[in-house]
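debug: dumping io for the single-chain case to check the tokenizer round-trip. Nothing else runs in this session.
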Amino acid sequence: MITIDISELRSESSGLQTFLKEKVNVSITVEDSLLILDSKGKISLRDIKAFVKRFLHHKGLSETYRVTVKHGTIKISKHK
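debug: decoded output
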């Protein structure tokens, strides 16, 4: 199970969800400001991080937001 914290980018949550479903083909549930991917070991945390970064790049948000991993959770946060 992989968790993505989208609390700072809620406006793009549905777009990110559909993007990941197309790329990874795993079930995704939404809980408040978290996307939870049921990967069952099919895909790594590093691969999901790369897909999230690619999504931000396609949306033109890669200069504004960054993607980090901490304790098994991918977090999208705004640059300071």
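debug: round-trip ok. The mean pLDDT is 91.
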